[in-house]
Amino acid sequence: MLRYAAVAGHKLQKAISACELIQVSASWPILNRSAVPVSLASYATGADVTEQKLAERWEVPAGSDLRVSTRSPAAVNIVFGEPDAISVQVDWKALPGSLPRFAIHKANAACIEVSEAVVESDSPAVIHAQIPARFCSLDLATAGGDVKLEGVQEARLAVRSNGGNVDVGKTRATQATISTGAPGSPSPGGSLSGNLTAASANIWTNGGSIHLSKFLGKQLSISSARELLAAVIEVPSLVADIKIDAAYAEHIFIDSGGLKLVVGELNCRPGAAMLQTSGAALEVSGLDGSAVLQSRGGPMQLRVHKNALSVYADSGGADIACYIPPDLVGHVSMLGRRLHIPPDLQASEGLQGRRMWNVMELQGSQREDGRLSGRQPMELSNSSEEVQKAGITLDAGLKGTITVQQQSWLAAIAAKQGLKR
């Protein structure tokens, strides 16, 4: 979409896109220390504008910080550079005689700040930075601009994009706080992508999609629920979704709001996980440890591994499909309108609370050599060591259908590959 802005005393000018600026500045030298007009461009409309460039380089110690704050949708691109320096360059276009739009200064010996003094929302800007590969924290705030990082290593990461998309690259942060939503806005937030490891992470996207290849840490939290101030009713989205290929954490909380939630491998031993949607589908391809899953009316698909402990899945009346390995030891409690279970397994009815549940007892697939398939060797008669039993509860209410199938991990991999083909 083309946008035009009227400027007093000048003709209409076309605002170039941030993508165009990125292409022009694919390789940029850090040379100039002040805003210098480097070229003159004339648009078909007749308005003359100059390309502006502001560049600085500062030597910094380990444990430094780069802070960027913009008041317009400026794009931010950050890559690794020198181990003891931070270099920043800002590119934008302006009419001749315009006031300097950006400022770069050294707040203290270990902190570089980039700020926007003059707002020109119809003239996109791009902020490039090179930072040390380790021990350099980032604090980035844009007014809707996209943020793209090569990564952050062993330092803090804070991003507030207010609707812009965020790519964290390969980040290993001590702490990560990421917000792609605009507070109070009815529009969904920007998307989040990349590979994120952090001791603690707190993410909010206000309905924006999330695609993470890995999400690792101790205390992890994701919320894509729409903000109440926006007065938006959660409805399942057919476009955006949350997809995490692998999540490993002691404690993890994910609220997808109205987005479909798909998690590949989920390992939360020795802690627990809580995953929920607001009527959208919920899928977990491999679960180890303990978890609570709630979809509030969305269909649910779950595959548990042999190391699953306590699992509670509540679909709010929608269908549930659960795949269990042949060597799982424990029990599966089921409540639903219809039950489909393997013919070689039996379920007995029992009253729990005020509702009649069906319970399957699972002993695992014992082999002739005295081992349980896929588990460590066991002396069944003399050993005092007991197999840790799993407790799985599937609650589809009085409307949903529950389907339980036995499937080995090899069969699961084959099924995935078949789907990809």
From TrEMBL:
Residues 364-384 are annotated as: Disordered. It comes from Apatococcus fuscideae. This is Adhesin domain-containing protein.
